[in-house]
Structure formats: C-alpha cells, structure tokens
Write a structure and sequence with these properties.
CATH superfamily of the largest domain: Aldehyde oxidase/xanthine dehydrogenase, molybdopterin binding domain
Shape: globular
Helix content: 25-40%
Number of strands: 29
CATH topology of the largest domain: Aldehyde Oxidoreductase, domain 4
C-alpha cells in the first residue's frame, strides 16, 4: 500500500463477513471521503488500489508458498469489481490488522483458510468499489444508477454509453463507501470458477520473483547456527577458536537456540559453524530413542482417558458381537522438508526492527519480535517474501527470532540461513502417533462398536498460542478419527497425551495426515473381516453423509472400480474430509518381488464447495498426493541417544520423478461455501496405497512408512 493511502486513512467502516466465518469481523472500508491528494488513486478499502490508467492492484495479506493465494485473492475481488482481468496486479500486504485472517483473528496463513476466510470480505470489498464507480458514472450521466451495469473494467449505461473505471477515479474517490454492498449471484460469475493462469508464475520463471533467501541488506552478515539437538539442551562447553580462524568469520554468538557463526558470506559462516567444538548437555533427552518413543505412545493409546466421543455402550456391543476386530497402527515423526531452506534477514536499528522472510505468520511475528528486540510492535516491519514451501513449518517463529536476536547482539543486519541438516534436526516435527482400534461386527458384517485410543504429543500445547480444552483432548491429535463419518452406533474415541521430547508442530494436513491413514486402513480391515467390497462397505456406512458419499462414488466411477486391471496391479480406496473439503482417492498399485510398492495411477475426486480456480485445485491435490506419498513410502525421523539420525534427502527421501504416478483430479460441482484445498489431498493417499497393497498381497501394513521387507516374496 502506498504512503499516501496509509496517511490518508481516517478509519474503518465495519461490515459483516458472515456468521459462518467469524463474528464481528471488521471489513476494512475507509470511512468518509478520501483526501484530495488521493484522487489519482481510488482506494476505497485496504485491499484495492485503482489508478487512472485502469490498473487494478489487489493487496494480499496472505503468504504465497505455492498454493496460489496471489491469484485467488485478486480473483475474489476482481469478480465483484467486474475488473478487466488483464489489468489486475497483486502486491504483498504489510503487517496490518486490516489483513487479519478472519478465521484466525491474526495475519497468518495456514489451515487451508485463505479462500474460506476471505470469500465474503474480499468480494464485499470489490462489490463496494463497483457500486461507487457505478454511482460516479450515473451522476456524470445524470441517470439512475439502476440503469447502469459493469463489465470488464467499464460502467455501461442501458443506452450504450460506456466509461472506463480509470476515468471515474476522481469522482468515485469522493463518494461514501457502502457498508453492505450487494454481492453477485454465483450464476453471474465471470472470473470465479474459471481456469486462470497464476499471476506469480512469470516472475518465478524469469527469476525476478523474490524469495526469502534472496533478501539482501547492505552491510549484512550471514549466520549459520549449531542448533540445540533437543528442546532445552544447552552447550556445556563451546570451543570456537577454529571457527574464528576461518577467513571471513566476524563473530560467534551463543543464543538460547544454539551457537551462531556470523561471517561475510554463507560459506565462511558454514565452515566456521562446522569448526565449532560443542559439548551439548542433552539433560533428560540423552537416552531418547525411537523405541522409547514408540513404547510411550503405545502406552498413551492403551490408557487413553481424555474422551473425545462417547456414544452408546461399547462394552455391551462388544459382548453381543458376531465378530471382533482389533489392530494397532503407528506413524513416525516427520520433517517438513521445504524446498527453500529456512532463512530470515533481520535489521535491528535503534528502536526499530525490520525483517525480510518467507513467513506464514506476519502478525504473530510482529508481536514476538517486538518482545525479542524490546521495541513497540508498531516499530516492527515484516516484509513478506515468497516461500519456497511452507507446509506449516514457516508458521513457527524460530528462524525470525534467531535472526533478530543475532542482529540485536551483533549490531549488524543478519541473514540467518539453516542448512538442510539444520532444519532436519531442528524439531518442529509432525507428531509421532499410535492408534489402537477395537471393533465389533454383527452377523452381516456391519460395525456395531468402535473403540480407539490415540497416543501422541500435543500440538496445541507446543504451539504457544493455544490451550488444550478442559476435556484434555488435543483437537489436532484426534481430527480425522473423532469426526469420522461412518454410521456406528456405539463408540468410545479417546486421547492419551504423551510427550517424549521432540518439538512438534503443524504439518501439512496436521492430525489428518496420520489419523486418516489409521482410520481408513482400519475401515478396510472391517470390510475384509466382513468379506465385503471395500468401496461398497464404505458406501453403505455413509448413507447420512452425502458429500463423503459423493466424492467416494465419483472417484470409484472415474477409476473404473471393479473393472479389470493389468496383471499384478490392484486398487485401494480411501475417503476423508479435512479443512472443509471432501476428497476420495483410488490408488492403483503393484508390489515387486523385492517388496517395493509401485503406485501407477491415482484418481482423486474432490468436493471443495464453490471454486475459485479449478487449475489451482487440481495442482494442489496433485501436490498433496506427492507430499503424502513421499511420507508413506519414505518419511521417517528417528532418534538415537537423544539425537535425530536423518540429515538430508539421502536418508530422508522424497518421491522422485521416475516414481510419480499418473494423477487424475475430478472436481465435484457444488454450491456449498468454499473449503480449503492446500491440504485435503494429502490424507487419503497413504491408506489408499496401503489398502491396495493388502489387495495385492493379503498383508496389512499398519505402520508408516511402508516396509518393503514385510512384502518381500520368498
């Protein structure tokens, strides 16, 4: 937003964002008339700037990490504005309460919320501007506003007169802003729902796009840090003599997160960091191992007493069942493995702080860094650059805190860069978890009872800004299980918190990422015990869940469920709801003689409500499948003697191009409010593949990642 607009803002008119989003959300509409100095720019709200040449600039408060918000947000506003899409531009917003995510109450990006949260506010912003432009044209023509319509950046009178929006800038700028503008009927949409090329693609292709790691501040030093191996670990001793001897190294600074080497450039800083001799005091974590983690989580699952769901009578249902089925599932800690290494450039100068970073949490960073540097929050400026992958990891503030501390102590601007190994061993993992299931079936194979205990650490407790509810149930630990869709009369679903030690954090699709694997694999086990088709078994249990049933049926139809496959190839299916969207996936899988699974094809069906950009939906589902498949086949963070064993992609592999299956995405037409799309593609892929492996081999894999040794033929 330009300085003129910032200084001329008089206040905000409050508008309703709709009860479905949040109560009392303030739509940032500028009150009264704009100052005369701004008449070259029509800026009726915090999100829009229209200039006399007809250029429409939309200000986006969300972070772009590949999910497409720098195109989706402009599409929302441009639709109601009736803008000429060829003249639409986008800019990243500064930190300002005007850009708070209505679903979070703070300026932050995550939870697949950007479109869901801004569906009404951004449309209202565009609609208000459109009404003002129409009013300005009607006044100029001396005709009723009702005789005018808008299209592609023009106001058009019923008798054929036309005027471009740019020509109306001075007059429209003097009009009051409507508090409750009329929104279009979705049947009138011209931009929303259309396949639209992304506005940020050209810059990413030609190299002009700026990611966090591209930031440069004159006089800055580059820092690489030896991080504490476990939360709470401290250096018992630090020998930095060899580090200081490296050419280009300027300072060695110890902060609570570790020991940092500051140098003229990255390689000098890294060489200096590698030359540090540190004896870490791991405290109670010194003998932590993956085996101990598994044992703790299994205990939590067995003794889970924080009850999320308790309906019917599980004991009586079990006693009268025709068949009992039980199984225990496990998932490991996972790293986020973002493509761009974590980084932040910070400059602490006097009573002000300025950072340049790819961050998912601009608002929280402003508050946190004001405390780190002991300055007023208003004195913290956050420049949000592009993120080379986020997946929840860049919601955490560790890298912005580290850079700010180092700048404050050193007196210089500092760019802190994590190596891949630093990030892999830095904590902030997807929680490891164990789920213990028991079920009872009647004489027809239908489930009459479901009991489940989940043992895992708490993300809510680790986040620092959430509180575990009074019932003791971490919402993220139970999502995908506590809210499963299946019609089962008697249920007891409970959480058993265990905290082995490693820092846990939000990971793409959060609790759904492991819990849908647990739940959909176990439902498949029930189908096998009932000697029923897995698709039909699910379908029968979803009679009261039309949106689940809709995507399940569409995925099965498009995959040709029940039709012949090439020799050695088998199908598996799974369905899930997360972040307001419904996704079913069918995986076609073969298993080699060495036990290695190969995924040949994935057919996905998605119901995410009304759509903004179908092209983005397809790409996000494809990306979610890649992310989830990488975790299912390879992902694992293991511990030995209190330290993480993985360091880079040689021992934390991700899916290679040669392993990529063919992916088909089918979007179910819907008039429901939009759901999220950045994460829902991930949860169903692991169980779909596991269920296909069972169909191929008769062996049930109950832990992630899949162990080829269990499938190896003699």
């Amino acid at each position: 937003m330009d300085t003129t607009l910032q200084t001329s803002r008089r206040g905000f008119l409050k508008g309703s964002a709709g009860a479905a989003l949040t109560i009392g959300f303030a739509l940032p509409l500028l009150g009264g008339r704009l100052e005369a100095a701004t008449t070259a720019v029509f800026a009726p709200n915090a999100w829009l700037r229209l200039t006399r040449d007809g250029t429409v600039t939309v200000i986006c408060g969300s972070a772009e990490m590949g999910q497409g918000v720098l195109t989706a947000i402009p599409m929302l506003l441009a639709e109601e504005l009736d803008a000429d899409w060829k003249k639409v531009r986008v800019e990243q917003a500064p930190v300002d309460k005007a850009y708070n995510n209505p679903m979070f109450g703070m300026q932050a990006t995550g939870g697949s919320t950007t479109v869901r949260a801004h569906w009404e506010p951004l449309r209202k912003a565009g609609a208000a501007a459109r009404e003002m432009l129409v009013a300005a044209a009607a006044t100029q023509w001396k005709v009723p506003a009702g005789e005018c319509r808008t299209e592609a950046g023009q106001v058009i009178h019923a008798r054929g007169r036309r005027i471009a929006y740019g020509a109306l800038v001075p007059a429209a700028s003097k009009l009051p802003v409507p508090a409750e503008p009329t929104l279009k009927d979705p049947k009138e949409f011209r931009i929303l729902g259309q396949r639209t090329n992304r506005l940020d693609t050209p810059g990413k292709v030609n190299g002009t796009a700026k990611f966090g790691i591209d930031a440069h501040v004159p006089g800055m030093l580059v820092a690489v840090m030896a991080r504490a191996p476990q939360p709470g670990a401290k250096p018992a001793s630090v020998d930095d003599r060899q580090a200081k001897a490296v050419k280009g190294v300027r300072q060695v600074i110890t902060i609570p997160q570790g020991v940092a080497v500051l140098a003229d450039g990255y390689w000098a800083a890294k060489k200096g960091r590698d030359a540090l001799v540190i004896d870490w005091d791991l405290g109670a974590a010194r003998d932590l191992s993956s085996a101990k983690v598994s044992a703790m989580l299994a205990e939590g699952a067995a003794n889970a007493d924080a009850v999320a769901v308790d309906v019917g009578n599980v004991r009586d249902a079990a006693a009268t069942s025709a068949k009992a089925v039980d199984a225990t599932y496990e998932a490991p800690y996972l790293a986020h493995a973002c493509m761009e290494p974590l980084n932040c450039t910070a400059r602490v100068k006097g009573d002000s702080v300025e950072i340049w970073a790819g961050t998912q949490s601009q608002g929280p960073n402003q508050g946190i860094l004001s405390q780190v540097a002991s300055v007023a929050p208003a004195k913290v400026k956050v420049n949000t650059l592009l993120l080379g992958g986020g997946f929840g990891r860049r919601f955490a503030p560790d890298f912005t805190i580290g850079a700010t501390l180092l700048s404050k102590i050193s007196g210089k601007p500092v760019k802190l860069i994590y190596t891949r190994e630093d990030d892999m061993a830095a904590g902030f993992y997807r929680p490891a978890a164990v789920a213990r299931f028991e079920a009872a079936l009647d004489d027809k194979g239908a489930p009459t009872m479901l009991k489940c205990g989940v043992g895992s650490p708490s993300i809510m407790a680790a986040s620092g800004f959430m509180k575990i509810p009074d019932n003791g149930v971490d919402t993220f630990a139970m999502e995908g299980i506590a809210d499963h869709p299946y019609d089962i009369a008697n249920q007891r679903l409970a959480y058993g918190r265990q905290e082995p030690g490693p820092q846990v954090w939000f990971w793409r699709s959060v609790g759904h990422s492991q819990n849908i694997f647990f739940m959909e694999s176990f439902i498949d086990e029930l189908a096998a015990a009932a000697k029923a088709d897995p698709y039909e078994y699910r379908r029968a249990l979803l009679s009261r869940q039309p949106r689940y049933k809709g995507v399940l049926e569409l995925a099965a139809q498009k995959a040709g469920w029940g039709s012949p496959l090439p020799a050695g190839v088998f199908r598996g299916i799974a369905v899930a709801q997360s972040f307001g969207s419904y996704v079913a996936e069918v995986a076609e899988v073969s298993v080699g003689a060495d036990g290695t699974p190969r995924v040949h094809r994935v057919v996905a069906a998605v119901d995410c409500g009304m759509t903004v950009n179908p092209q983005t939906i397809e790409r996000q589902i494809e990306g979610g499948i890649v992310y989830g498949l990488s975790a299912a086949l390879y992902g694992r963070i293991t511990l030995k003697d209190g330290r993480v064993e993985q360091g880079n992609f040689h021992d934390y592999p991700v899916l290679r191009l040669t392993e990529m299956p063919k992916v088909e995405v089918h979007i179910l037409a819907s008039t429901e409010k939009p759901g999220g799309i950045g994460e829902p593609g991930t949860p169903p892929i692991a169980p779909a593949v596991a269920n296909a492996i069972f169909a191929a081999t008769g062996k049930r894999l109950r832990s992630l990642p899949f162990d080829a040794a269990q499938l190896r033929k003699a």
